[in-house]
Amino acid sequence: MQGTLFINGLSGFLIVTALLVALAPRPVQAARFYALQSLVLVALFVSIAMTTGSTELYLWSASAFVTKVVLVPVIMTKMFRRLEDPELGSGAVMPAALSIVGAALIVILCYAVISRVTLPAALPLKPALAISLAHFFLGLGCIVGQRNILKQVFGYCLMENGSHLTLAILAPNAPELVEVGIATDAVFAVVIMAVLGMRISKTLGSLDARKLTTLKG
User: Which of UniProt's keywords are assigned here (predicted)?
Assistant: First the structure.
């Protein structure tokens, strides 16, 4: 009982760190906040493993720490440091206050949806499951609601973290190969999107997605 309460409470920090990533004024700062969020995700994996007795989740935790807490933020920091753009802080479609209110509404809506779920594995962790679903939509909102290309890359990372937590809650005994596949996809996707962002910045002199309106051969 105490384990599930801790997991449900700790999952709330994912929403806080997601907002920090989405609202960070500089890409390097956003990368550091993403590393912090991934550390919270690893702690959730360990807590779920202790509660469910899943040895697979301990392996998930180790691989997630290497890829999400260390590898991906280091890649982002090295690549994005060259792309410091004053437009990053002003690229949001919605102001910060409205983004926070929107995040709260998304969490409430997702909890209302998850409250109808009757899967045995999800019953004690419904708040955490609702937050994982809300986290996915927050990442999607970051992609849609941010005009800066780098922030859209972080939106993808947030979506991936939300999906990862959902899988850990609903299928804690899934083979380690599943987690390795997800983590590998995330690393390669971040590298590809970061490279594209660098090339776009060099070509257009900007990271504003609104300027990607003309195809040049």
Answer: Cell membrane, Membrane, Transmembrane, Transmembrane helix
Nearest CA to 197 among 143, 149, 139, 154? 149
- The CA distance from 27 to 216, in Å, is 27
| pLDDT per position as a tens digit, 35-62 | 999 999 999 999 998 888 888 888 888 8
List the domain range (segments joined by +) for residue 14.
Answer: 2-208
pLDDT tens column, 130-181:
999 998 898 888 888 777 778 888 888 888 888 888 888 888 777 766 666 6
Number of structural domains found in the chain: 1
Ramachandran category for residue 215: left, alpha or beta (phi over 0 → left; psi -120 to 50 → alpha) = beta
Residue 96 host element (H or E): helix 96-114
Q: What percent of the chain has pLDDT over 70?
A: 82
Asked, for residue 143, whether it belongs to a domain, the answer is yes
pTM assigned to the model: 0.83
Residues 109, 181: Cα–Cα separation, whole Å = 30
Q: Among residues 148, 146, 158, which one has the least CA distance to residue 211?
A: 148
Domain membership of residue 164 (yes or no) is yes
Residue 214 lies in a domain: no
* Pairwise CA distance, residues 140 & 144, whole Å: 6
